[in-house]
Amino acid sequence: MKSHSLFARILMATDLSAASQVAYRVARDLAVLLNAHLLLLHVFEYAGAASPMTGGIAEGLSAFRQSAEHELELLLLDSAKHGLTVEGRITDGIVSEVILETAGQQRIDLVVMGTRRTTGLERFLLGSTAEVVFRSSDCPVLTAGPRVLTPTGPPHTRGPIVFATDLSHMSTAAVRSAAFLCERTGVPLHCLHVLPRCDLKPGDEDALRRTSAAAIGQMIHEGGFAIGDPLCAIACDDDASTGVLDYAAQHKASLIVLGVRHASPVAAHLPGKIACQIIAGAACPVLVATDQLRSRC
């Protein structure tokens, strides 16, 4: 029996730029696959920038808003052509705050976002809207990073979903998200554990793979997901983000799934900005689930 839908309501946050088109298509295709309701949200950050004394600026902002309304309408028409139940909103405010507030108010199950290329990786890692959202969100956040291309072909023809795990309790929501999407797309699940090269001794790899398979299999069984046994792999790399990215590239992954601590600078089993590094370097979207999701996510 198929599990109930984890992602019945999807929020796509878009800046309506050309770069955001990839993320929109990811959200649209996922909503079609899951028969989900799609909410398209554009946050207008400039509403408070003009005062009554700056008429020229106000006129310019009005033109920007009209352009945004037009671009959003085009996305709504496209979504409707694909048979989706869709609505659109333009809201004034700070992007991350509006996304989180809207997701909470609308009982969103999955937030989808895109990121643009910046002048440097450090700038992306230290302050992106995506990071603020996925570290504070009450539901999973799927981000199409700057290297992601427009998806092609039906979902079942794409590569595996790669779940990078440390087998901790905080990984439960992430692995269930991965298993659900594998169930619905028909692609295999790969569970990846990255270790420093010096940590493995003879025989350790097989033992760890068996432990990983047992723990993840239990989480999948408890979630009631109808998928085959996951492939459990061990990658040895002193740079964990490189280990995940190399594995995902080698196997042509369609999605990477990570677990992170809620509103914390520590990501899953790895210190620092690992989730952001993976989002910045991945050729496929990255889904991040925190350890404090709502019970239905």
From TrEMBL:
Residue span, UspA domain: 8-142, 160-288
SUPFAM superfamilies to which the protein is assigned, alphabetical: Adenine nucleotide alpha hydrolases-like
PANTHER family in alphabetical order: SENSOR PROTEIN KDPD-RELATED (PTHR46268:SF22), STRESS RESPONSE PROTEIN NHAX (PTHR46268)
Record family assignment: Belongs to the universal stress protein A family.
Protein name: Universal stress protein
Species in which this protein is naturally found: Paracidobacterium acidisoli
